Amino acid sequence: MTVPAIRITSATKRYGSLQALAGVDLEVAQGEFFGLLGPNGAGKTTLISALSGLVRPDGGTFEIMGFNVVSDYRNARRNLGVVPQELVFDPFFSVRELLRIQSGYFGIRNNDDWIDEILASLDLTAKAGANMRMLSGGMKRRVLVAQALVHRPPVIVLDEPTAGVDVELRQGLWQFIRKLNRDGHTIVLTTHYLEEAETLCGRIAMLKSGRVVALDTTENLLRRFASHALSVRLERPEAAAALGGTVTAGGWADFPLDRYEDLEPLLARLREAGVRILELRMGEADLERVFVEVMNGA
Amino acid sequence: MVHDALTGFRTLLYKEVLRFWKVGFQTVGAPVLNALLYLLIFSHVLDRHVTVYGEVAYTAFLVPGLVMMSLLQNAFANSSSSLIQSKITGNIIFVLLPPLSYREFYAAYVIASVLRGLFVGMGVLLVSLPFVDLPIAAPGWIFAFGLMGGAILGSLGVIAGIWADKFDQLAGFQNFLIMPLTMLSGVFYSIRSLPDFWQKVSHINPFFFMIDGFRYGFFGQSDVSPWLSLAVVGICFVFLAVLTLAMLARGYKLRA
């Protein structure tokens, strides 16, 4: 039986009065593209930091490819690449120097062939000799990805890697990360862009107040929480509540629909109630809706 | 691609050396110039009026003190400034994420500090030589105290760099602890010229023993026995090394 890429058991962490992790259990299989979602302060970054050894948990165990991150930290860290959330860099060095140094930290010498390959994949070859201070924000973000990959880790954690990144770069970055995933790397992604998570992740965990409040495949989450919804602008929106709808702003009301077949009976009920429809649109289920429902329900 | 158990440590050491070497004008050149100015001014004012240990000219007496003072201050500056900059800019994570042990971390930062201290010390010595006839009575002592002094201040720099959350706190550590202890350690005078009380006070300053032992290597004379100085300096180093390693092992202020 293959070991999971990541196994987290009963993880707890408290900062003063704040319970950042309140007993998290999580397992990510090798080769998965896994999403870790949650509002600010949910515990995502604490969880990732504890996994990567940047934070010491109060309790629980963290394993990467079967290696405990405390007792066998050398093997655990060799198997993990982390792209941090903040745009951090060492202003003393060029891109190539940084990547060589980062390789060295992981015990790897003469790594230039792989460094060249990463630079080419991330469209950074022309900037290899440039000092980090001279690069744009997007370029710096790509260098962070390159730094996480220099030691060819099987597990890669990306902590909000597209925050503040333009659309073109975001697309390029996801193309590259998808390729890494196809090549067998396990990817764990935290992001506030829920459409990204929906498109990319095969499985998703949602965190709230340091607990996992939802964990399933993306498909199941979408199916379980909301498949479709009808949004209508009504002459008398207050009538929507009696018919199972939720009144939103501007005279609009939302009616959840499990199947398209439920649409006609709903319209008939509205007609029978004498409620005049001014505008109508169909909404597909999306992760944002699921996210809101999970967070409100948890 | 070659894997090697010591590569991580060697790389961190190389990075720390490269970091100060890349700005050598500021990290080596400037302190050498400072020491040279001290030498020119003090020797101009005092050389004809003061002799030390009976027959040693003041300028000759001053040079080993300036060399050691520069060595100590720059060893401290190296590890402390590197760590606080990394912490404040956030790039410390690139050292914390890899599989480096806390002992490798300590050794790399302290050795890089010693190297910077030695570079600066040698620079001060070289630019001083045209102005002074300096004997070298026991080079082994010079080397031993240079090395130990650099390691002590390198360790103090690691402690200060980890403890300080902002540059202001680090400057406080440097200006209110390191600087007074260095200036009052006998760099510019022999403690034999002090009143009895201040001689006794000097004996509780470990920096005095570093400089006095270092000076013994040049003149074969010192205020106290070099063996006593070596013992004090050795105990200080062991104490600070244990303290720093304990902080790093706990992840104090580095791994929250």
Describe the protein's architecture and organization.
The complex is a heterodimer of chains A (298) and B (256). Chain A is α/β, with parallel strands linked by helices and 298 residues long. Chain A folds into two domains: 6-223, P-loop containing nucleotide triphosphate hydrolases (Rossmann fold); 227-297, Alpha-Beta Plaits, CATH 3.30.70. Chain A is 34% helix and 29% strand. Chain A has ten helices and 15 strands. Chain A has helices spanning 44-52, 73-78, 95-105, 112-121, 137-149, 167-182, 194-200, 218-225, 263-272, 287-297; strands at 6-15, 18-28, 33-37, 59-64, 67-68, 80-83, 108-109, 155-159, 186-190, 203-208, 211-217, 228-234, 246-247, 252-257, 277-284. In chain A, the strands form three sheets. In chain A, strands 6-8-9-3-10-11 form a six-stranded mixed beta sheet, sandwiched between helices. A four-stranded antiparallel beta sheet of chain A has the order 2-1-4-5. In chain A, helix 8 (218-225) crosses helix 10. Chain A is elongated and about 75 Å long. Chain A starts with 5 loop residues before the first strand and ends with a helix. The relative contact order of chain A is 0.14. The mean pLDDT of chain A is 90. Chain B is mostly helical and 256 residues long. Chain B has one domain. Chain B contains ten helices and three strands, in the order βααββαααααααα. In chain B, strands 2-3 form a two-stranded antiparallel sheet. In chain B, a hairpin with a 3-residue loop joins strand 2 and strand 3. In chain B, 47% of the residues are buried. The model of chain B has no long low-confidence stretch (mean pLDDT 91). Classes of the chains: A alpha/beta (298), B mainly alpha (256). Chain A binds chain B through residues 15, 49, 52-56, 73-78, 80, 82, 84, 86, 88-93, 97, 101-111, 113-114, 147, 151, and chain B through 1-5, 7-8, 10-12, 14-15, 18-19, 22-23, 86, 89-91, 93-101, 251, 255-256. Chain A: It comes from Aromatoleum toluvorans. Chain A: InterPro entries: AAA+_ATPase (IPR003593), ABC_transporter-like_ATP-bd (IPR003439), ABC_transporter-like_CS (IPR017871), ABC_transporter_ATP-binding (IPR050763), P-loop_NTPase (IPR027417). Chain A: One of its GO terms (molecular function) is ATP binding.
